[in-house]
Amino acid sequence: MSPAIRVRPRRELAAARRRRAHRCWGHLVAAPLWPMHQANLGTLLRTCDAVGACLAVPPWRWVDEALARGNTLRQPSCVHRVGDPVRWLAAERASGAQVLGVELTDEAVRLADLPMARRRTIVVLGHEATGIPAEALDSLDAAVEIPMVGTGLSLNVAVAGSLVLYKLAGLT
């Protein structure tokens, strides 16, 4: 009797995926512009590769080191350096991109109700302790809420960003 579940071998999985890294898809961009913990950036970078997204980060030296340490992929990933986050977000919005913040607001869309991204979408992730700064909230088109039933107030940047990216990519 054969098992009910067939595990696909690595060779078969690799054949079904991209042959090489992309230069820049530009459709989805994860933007942890105020990062606090180094480990979260490497994890989020892996998710970006999995869903076909790019990562936008501030040009801080420790961010580059964290990405280099956290990138366990064999190919380089799509990473954009952002000098002034508020100015960059305003420019992205002015160019037609949808700018979504993962933040608790009165008008936030629940993650389950978030539609798949149909145009360039920037997913703004705030600081783990303080969220998205007030001066950047004006650049958001909408906010996304990730419902929680536990005692914690929020998820870390890597987990929150991964959940939202998978939903926007239409992979959930």
UniProtKB/TrEMBL annotation:
Keywords: Methyltransferase, Transferase. GO terms for molecular function: methyltransferase activity. Residues 36-166 form the tRNA/rRNA methyltransferase SpoU type domain. InterPro entries: Alpha/beta_knot_MTases, rRNA_Methyltransferase, SpoU_MeTrfase, tRNA_m1G_MTases_N. It comes from Plantactinospora mayteni. GO terms for biological process: methylation. Pfam families: SpoU_methylase. This is RNA methyltransferase.
